[in-house]
Amino acid sequence: EDKLVSISSAEGDMIDQTMIKSDPTMLKFANEHNPKNPNMVSLVVGGVKLLLHSGQTQSSMPVELAFQQKYGVIREYAWFGQGYLFVGFETGYMVIISSDTGDVIDELFSFRFHHNGLDMFCVHHDLQRCATAGDGMVKLINMKDKFREWKESKSDRTYISSEVAKVCQ
């Protein structure tokens, strides 16, 4: 409510605080998906920006990522691989970025699996698959290949009657 994000140690000692401009949502830790910095914290700010904070020292400045306006509001995001973020937007676009702050953070790849909008997605790390929900269906994406080669497994597509239900989680 005070638009202040605090990072504390396990003992309760404050490591850092960051003031943000809009409401924070979807706070996540990178954990094993960012071996260079497993303490990295990420959160969505104002529905359209992603804030990355190293979570290690007060001297480390958070990085705020803004996306192209055509993508719209962030519906969900997930850490995967070795420091990558998979971000899904209400317009059906899905974007992959790297959290390696040593490089300029930029979109590595973007694609649109749902043309009428994305409702939700989730990643199964062990199977290296992603389930996306939108346009009245659930699609399964094989994440084993390079980003540019990710493809929907059309035989696994599941249709959902929009009058009966909508995937929301």
Overall description:
The chain is mainly beta. Helices cover 0% and strands 47% of the residues. It contains no helices and 15 strands. Strands 11, 12, 13, 14 and 15 form a 5-stranded antiparallel beta sheet that branches. A 4-stranded antiparallel beta sheet has the order 3-4-5-6, with no helix packed on it. A hairpin with an 8-residue loop joins strand 9 and strand 10. The relative contact order is 0.12.
Helix-strand makeup class:
mainly beta
Backbone shape: globular
Overall mean pLDDT score?
82
Q: How many helical stretches?
A: 0
Please state roughly what percent of the residues sit in beta strands, choosing from under 5%, 5-15%, 15-25%, 25-35%, 35-45% or over 45%: over 45%
Order of helices and strands: EEEEEEEEEEEEEEE
List low-pLDDT spans.
Answer: none
Largest sheet: 5 strands, antiparallel
What is the number of strand segments? 15
Radius of gyration: 17 Å
* Helix content percent band: under 10%
Span between N and C termini?
24 Å
Summarize the entry for a quick read.
The protein has 169 residues and is an all-beta fold.
Which key features would you list for this structure?
four-stranded antiparallel β-sheet; 169 residues; mainly beta
Please outline the helices and strands.
Layout: E1 4-8, E2 14-19, E3 24-29, E4 41-45, E5 49-53, E6 63-66, E7 74-80, E8 84-89, E9 93-98, E10 107-112, E11 118-124, E12 129-134, E13 137-142, E14 151-152, E15 158-159
Antiparallel strand pairs: 1-2, 3-4, 4-5, 5-6, 7-8, 8-9, 9-10, 11-12, 12-13, 13-14, 13-15
